Amino acid sequence: MPKRNVKLAGILFEMADILEMQGVDWKPRAYRQAARSLEALDEDIAKVNKRGGLKALKEIPGVGEAIAAKIVEYLETGKVQSHEKLKKTMPSHMNMLMNIQGMGPRKIKKLSEKLGITSVEQLEKAALAHRIAKIPGFGEKSEKDILENIALMKGARGRVPLAEAEKEAKKVIAHLKKLKEVKHISTAGSLRRKRPSVGDIDILVASTEPQKVIDRFTKMKGVKKVLAGGGTKGSVILKSGIQSDLRVLPPESWGAGLFYFTGSKDYNIEMRRVAIRKGYKLNEYGLFDKRTGRMVAGRTEQEICRKLGVKYLEPEKRER
Question: Which residues of 235-272 are buried (b: 16+ CB within 10 A; e: fewer)?
Answer without folding.
Answer: bbbbebebbbbbbbbbeebbbbbbbbbbbeeebbeebb
